[in-house]
Amino acid sequence: MSAMRSVEEQLAEVLAAVAPLPAETVAIAEAHGRVLHAPVLAANDIPAFDNSAMDGFAVRFADVATASQDAPVTLAVVADLPAGSPDDPRLAAGQAARIMTGSAVPADADAIVPFEDTVGGLADSLGTTTVVAAPAAAGVFVRRGGQDARRGDEVLAAGTWMGPLQCSAAAASGVDVVVVSRAPRVAIVSTGSELVEPGTPLRRGQIPDSNGILLAALATDAGAIVVHRGSIDDEGSSLHALLADLESVDAIVFSGGVSAGAYEVVRTELAAAMAFVRVAMQPGKPQGFGRLPDGTLLFGLPGNPVSSAVSFETFVRPALLAMQGRVGGERARIVLPASAAWRTPPGRRQYLPAAIDRSDPARWTVAPATAGGSGSHMAGGLGRAEAYAIVPADVEAVAVGDLVDVMLVA
Ligand SMILES: Nc1nc2c(c(=O)[nH]1)N[C@H]1C(S)=C(S)[C@@H](COP(=O)(O)OP(=O)(O)OC[C@H]3O[C@@H](n4cnc5c(N)ncnc54)[C@H](O)[C@@H]3O)O[C@H]1N2
Ligand code: MOO
């Protein structure tokens, strides 16, 4: 039997086959979850203009530089500036404008006095206001236009994933559309004559198709559009009928039918397009990967539920991110002490579904998500996992207190 491939070798083969997807323009309100194909350049300054950081009075600093409880300074309030006001009232010496947070600061003012530093509140302040504490310096509580970004500055780089914070930054910079990579179109195909839709009463031998749900959700989280999800039996005719039906997909993710059994439909029917190899990982040893003549990527993931989940993380997710040109999308990794002991398979890197105990914020610990074993069939225990503990191939056991690499996936 041929030697096992390393995870890195298999991933390199997958990534070498990935072609970047073309760009498309979407409205900023539709950009959440997409990856920027082109940088976002600010269409306006942020802040857009000099504006007040406080509710209070726009003043000429020189007028109030010596104000104190013992030497209060009374100013004439000659204008009122609610947020959104386009006014720029002239202020002569001894004059102030009442101003609200976010309102444009008059050109003649160079400091803001919060109303707490005046006698009385805002309500009765439209005639005069008496300042009882001097601003620390000229410019205080004035938020300068362009302080955060200038029109034309790069606010977000190409390759950025548009999370809520990134979408808001683009919106604040005044753009209405962004150029993103087209979302990968993915088909999720479970194989196995034992599979039924979740919730269907099971006769002996049948199980719910949980991988379809799993892989569709993982693909969606990776930015893909799932254009098809379904299961097929182990007949080659079913697989070919499905392939003929699928239109313009970028990747097909099969689960099951890739190992050594007598009914391995993916392996037998797609032998010309895919290579089936053994990878030195547990779970996830049998892997199939290839391309259709039109470039569609074909992933053949092992059918055991934990094997499918780990294989997606290891090979499919990186490919979907690379198609979108995403920069820095790798899962976060941390090192944590183990709070339980477990055994690991010799000669294969282990990816163990794991739970993290966060009860002591200064000392998180990690343990297997499934008590009583790390079997790749533990589809229920997977629900308690929020991470994978990754143990090198040359380690045979993890002891309590050992430091373990942990990949966060939740
Ligand atoms: N003689 C050998 N047998 C097996 C080997 C081997 O090297 N020699 N490898 C084992 C390993 S490791 C794995 S992993 C599995 C991979 O098998 P397949 O990818 O061919 O998957 P199936 O045989 O179709 O199914 C395996 C297992 O997973 C369940 N399954 C399949 N699809 C789904 C689904 N959509 N939802 C939930 N569960 C699913 C299926 O019922 C089986 O229990 O092969 C080992 N065997
Ligand atoms: O590799 Mo299988 O994926 O060990 O369960």
Average predicted local confidence, pLDDT: 96
CATH homologous superfamily designation of the largest domain: MoaB/Mog-like domain
So what's the overall shape?
elongated
**How much strand content do the residues show?**
25-35%
Detail the poorly predicted runs. Answer: none
Strand order of the largest sheet: 7-4-6-5-9-8
How many discrete structural domains?
4
State the helix count.
7
Name the structural class. Answer: alpha+beta
Give the termini distance in whole angstroms.
37 Å
Summarize the structure.
This protein has 410 residues and is α+β, with helices and mostly antiparallel strands.
Describe the overall structure.
- The chain has 410 residues and is an alpha+beta fold.
- It has four domains: 7-21 and 183-323, MoaB/Mog-like domain (Molybdenum Cofactor Biosythetic Enzyme, Chain A, 3-Layer(aba) Sandwich), CATH 3.40.980; 23-47 and 147-181, Alpha-Beta Complex (Molybdopterin biosynthesis moea protein, domain 2), CATH 3.90.105; 51-143, Molybdopterin biosynthesis moeA protein, domain 3 (Beta Complex); 333-408, Beta-clip (Beta Barrel), CATH 2.40.340.10.
- 17% of the residues lie in helices and 30% in strands.
- The protein is built from seven helices and 28 strands.
- A six-stranded mixed beta sheet has the order 7-4-6-5-9-8. It has a six-stranded mixed beta sheet with strand order 16-13-17-21-20-18, sandwiched between helices. Strands 19, 22, 24, 25, 26 and 28 form a six-stranded mixed beta sheet that branches.
- A hairpin with an 8-residue loop joins strand 8 and strand 9 (128-131).
- The relative contact order is 0.13.
- The site of molybdate ion has 8 residues, from loops.
